[in-house]
Amino acid sequence: MTATEEPVTEIAAFPEDRTCPYQPPSGFRAAAGRGPISQLELYDGRVVWGVTGHTEARRLLADPRLSTDRRNPAFPATTEVVGRIRNRLTPPLVGVDDPVHKVQRGRLIPSFTHRRINALRPRIHEIAGRVLDTMVEKGPPADLVTDFAQPLPSMVMCHLLGVPYEDHDHFEQRTTRMLSGENPAIAMGELREYLLALAGENRHKLNEGLFGDLVEAPEGEVSRADLVDLTIVILGAGFETTASMLSLGIFTLLDNPERLAELRADPSLWGAAGEELLRYTSITDGITRVATEDIEIGGVTIRKDDGIIFLTSVLNRNEDVREDPDVLDWHRPTRNHIAFGFGAHQCLGQNLARIIQEIALQQLFERLPDLRLATAVAEIPFRPGHAVQGMIKLPVTW
Ligand code: HEM
């Protein structure tokens, strides 16, 4: 049966707001109870496939018959806004299939190796320390979203891209506007102009960074303008996710004080804790694709042009993959989660994200041993289901 042919008994909606910011929505859990692949209904009434089985998700995410090309009219729109602008969304890398994807990704891989990213550790330490100094001087209280979770990745991105120091304010203001959703297209256009000028004036040479790697490389199949667009995609993919990961990770720890106490007692657990928090919070909940051919899998037939959505939050709570998946546990092997996706488009920045998370959380909780929420949990706003999951505000005191 196809997504539209299967008799509708019960159907989960996508997206669905979480009721607790770090728990999967109840509709997604119900979908998982109906089998590894079941139906989901989008805002416009379209029925697509929701994947909740771990094995099926890995097979499908590695299958070249699934496409990420947003220009395909059959690519599912998950919100009304995305539906309106979908055909204008032609992001390189995240929105292209092989063979072009392989070429674009190949250009970036040398800048994201373990060795290159590990070499950033001392600088990330220093940046986290500076962000904390500013916050401590101002507070308490503080909003950890605007005072910590957003400025830290923004400063790391400036460093990674090699934005000269005197341009940091200009650059950070625009990345923050892109992140906050206030005229994101205008902010993105301004960033594009800025990066093209930076390359044109050769000022990027003042700093070593990913952007320098890209614009110095021989043009080959990818033009200079495309490389700037690739850089913007990296910013978009890396900034919002990292800021959300930090805000939601910190909230989860403050809301689970006994787990936080374990980390305070044994700081060697911070690396494992970062990984477990990625699995547990699954901030990118809903990886989207369209089928370009018929595919038989998990007892259903996915037809050409069917939409497919991977429900990461429940995929990462699958009992076939790990015991007690609803328990936060720093002592389990957690690497086989799907928080960074899987297959050809698996997160390119995952090593960087891991290092930022480990350093940021450890420094924050060591520097402020009495850090606690300044408002009742129920009053702290978090992001709606269609966005990357994270906190809108995180009022704290110490
Ligand atoms: C906790 C933080 C992060 C999470 C949860 C996350 C999650 C993801 C996921 C799920 C995908 C796959 C999307 C898909 O298959 O459609 C992805 C792709 C990607 N991520 Fe991340 N990401 C994070 C941080 C970063 C950072 C820090 C960077 C870069 C500095 C980055 C750069 C990218 C890029 C460039 C892609 C596209 C890769 C491709 O299409 O080949 N991400 N990310």
From TrEMBL:
<dbReference type="GO" id="GO:0016705">
    <property type="term" value="F:oxidoreductase activity, acting on paired donors, with incorporation or reduction of molecular oxygen"/>
</dbReference>
<dbReference type="Pfam" id="PF00067">
    <property type="entry name" value="p450"/>
</dbReference>
<comment type="pathway">
    <text>Antibiotic biosynthesis; vancomycin biosynthesis.</text>
</comment>
<dbReference type="InterPro" id="IPR001128">
    <property type="entry name" value="Cyt_P450"/>
</dbReference>
<keyword id="KW-0479">Metal-binding</keyword>
<comment type="similarity">
    <text>Belongs to the cytochrome P450 family.</text>
</comment>
<comment type="function">
    <text>Involved in the coupling of aromatic side chains of the heptapeptide of vancomycin.</text>
</comment>
<protein>
    <submittedName>
        <fullName>Cytochrome P450 hydroxylase</fullName>
    </submittedName>
</protein>
<dbReference type="InterPro" id="IPR036396">
    <property type="entry name" value="Cyt_P450_sf"/>
</dbReference>
<keyword id="KW-0560">Oxidoreductase</keyword>
<dbReference type="GO" id="GO:0005506">
    <property type="term" value="F:iron ion binding"/>
</dbReference>
<keyword id="KW-0408">Iron</keyword>
<keyword id="KW-0349">Heme</keyword>
<keyword id="KW-0503">Monooxygenase</keyword>
<dbReference type="GO" id="GO:0020037">
    <property type="term" value="F:heme binding"/>
</dbReference>
<dbReference type="InterPro" id="IPR017972">
    <property type="entry name" value="Cyt_P450_CS"/>
</dbReference>
<dbReference type="GO" id="GO:0004497">
    <property type="term" value="F:monooxygenase activity"/>
</dbReference>
<dbReference type="InterPro" id="IPR002397">
    <property type="entry name" value="Cyt_P450_B"/>
</dbReference>
